[in-house]
Task: structure prediction
Amino acid sequence: MKKLSSSMSGFEQEIAALFERPGYPPEIEKNVAAILDGVAARGDAALVEYAARFDHVELTPDQFRVTEAELAAAEAALPRESKRAIRTAFRHVRDFARLRRPRDWHRSPRRGVMVGEKFVPMQRVGVYIPGGTAPLVSTVIHTAGIAAAAGVPEIVAVTPAGPGGRIHPAVLFAMKTVGITEIYRLGGVYGIAAMALGTESIRRVEKIVGPGNAYVTAAKRLVYGKVGIDMIAGPSEILVLADATARPDFIAADMLSQAEHGSGLEQAVLVTDDPTLPDRVEAELMARKAALPRLETVDKVLDKGVFMIVAEDLDQAAELASRYAPEHLEIMTASPEKVARKIRAAGAIFMGPWTPEPVGDFCAGPSHVLPTAGSARCFHGLTVGDFYRRMSLVRYSETAIQQEIPVIEEFGRMEGLTAHGLAGTIRRNGGK
Result:
């Protein structure tokens, strides 16, 4: 845990070092490329091998896909409260997505000219649902649920299987609830490869979305171009911007919510104009961490990934938050909306003491798939628009083109593209 104050010498250098989050080791990409090559060369046979090697599951190709009987059994086994929570979260996420669906439009900016845009849902997308240390039920909703709201007809999911090829029943129920059409018990890099490259049993998709560990992230980066992807995401992070009105116990609880994610590389940052707040938050962190089951991972984050920064005032605090460009930004101040107006970059902003970041993880509405490691400066979180193909529309009348033929001809001359200019010239005076 590190504490910094704007009154310290070398403050800017310390901040610059903090805001340069470390990337993943380069050797990961080499190992990932070998797995992708294996799936490209050997298809289903490679998937069988990698499932045994990495997930310790013996599968045959006809066992890759989850059956309707398994979905029915998962629904029957799941407690009513879990099913209610999944349905509620899906409804909120779906309703938010529907509000943001792009709509076709056209205008006539000049006489005889029509321009516009046409949007069509993608035909087949893939979602990656991590298994690992926790069943990320919410990720099903925040990826596939949004694709379903976009009207994507074929939604393919891959997720690692546990012992005996089992997938957590809550994950399966969520997949059924949101309308996933194909579910495969395939994990990690080889699951990404199956969706991106296709095999004898699995048809390739057009786009892959969803978070994952360093290996999944590297795989998505390497298959980009063969398929679309949502973003390159890293370990989770939270920045809490707070003043003297903020409750230290609320801040500590929300910082711990990110520290428990599992990689040990997560970051939790407090920026405040109250010099007494860091010590009070630290005391709450130490008191509350003992009740958490993932204590080893949490301790690693508390040791190396927690930073407390005392700013001169809330204006400087907002500037520091924008420079950090966090995945999750909580604003716990007397006037959070006023502070939020000063923020230039963040994946998602949670305003006020009654808006903890986990409400965004689970049920608020916007997707929890968000840019990390400062990439919120140039990327945004997953939205329903990411599941559409956008096509521009242009139409000229015979009269309208006459006005712009000289422009076409001149650009053809300037760029040395004679045939481009000719395509305009030949239409002069109606093509006579």
Observations:
- The chain has 17 helices and 14 strands.
- The longest strand covers residues 113-121.
- Residues 43-103+122-229 form a domain with the Rossmann fold fold (CATH 3.40.50.1980).
